[in-house]
């Protein structure tokens, strides 16, 4: 996906009705020794980092339970859409654990430090409506009879992104992600570097031409 230039947006959805991702298999985990557990969790953390580093926008379609590592997967995405009936939570402390695949870092950056601490310390589960109210998800929708309301809303959101200039969107994502980790002056420098890379693109010229000619732009990602 990272190197396929035809890929413009990635949507993560589940094929299991009622469950986005239920997290680690604790029965499997119970058969591992301490070293194996550490290696397993490191691989999970690396996977989430790879998802977060995808150059194109990513959307998690949460149509059911997103618990533990399942919510960490959703947090690794750029955008999240949930059914109102979905259940989300970093429940690790209820099993004698703590989030180990990015949850302690990505949840505070998403909802703020105080609320993230409360949710992690208590292991509380919240539904889609509550998740929207605290900014954990971008949109919440009533579940439909097919059980894929969040996926359908995610597709609608993806279709809003698709017409936009692909390279500009990628640079926008890079500027936001890198800029959020530094002070604002450094962030401005990062934005400037990303903008400079966008200036010589054909898509920028096409955008300007389309504006002058009062027509929709035809972006190619070049």
UniProtKB/TrEMBL annotation:
It comes from the Eukaryota. GO terms for cellular component: mitochondrion. InterPro entries: ClpP/crotonase-like_dom_sf, Enoyl-CoA_hyd/isom_CS, Enoyl-CoA_hydra/iso, Enoyl-CoA_hydra_C. PROSITE patterns: ENOYL_COA_HYDRATASE. One of its GO terms (biological process) is fatty acid beta-oxidation. GO terms for molecular function: enoyl-CoA hydratase activity. Pfam families: ECH_1. Keywords: Lyase. PANTHER family: ENOYL-COA HYDRATASE DOMAIN-CONTAINING PROTEIN 2, MITOCHONDRIAL, ENOYL-COA HYDRATASE-RELATED. Belongs to the enoyl-CoA hydratase/isomerase family. This is Enoyl-CoA hydratase domain-containing protein 2, mitochondrial.
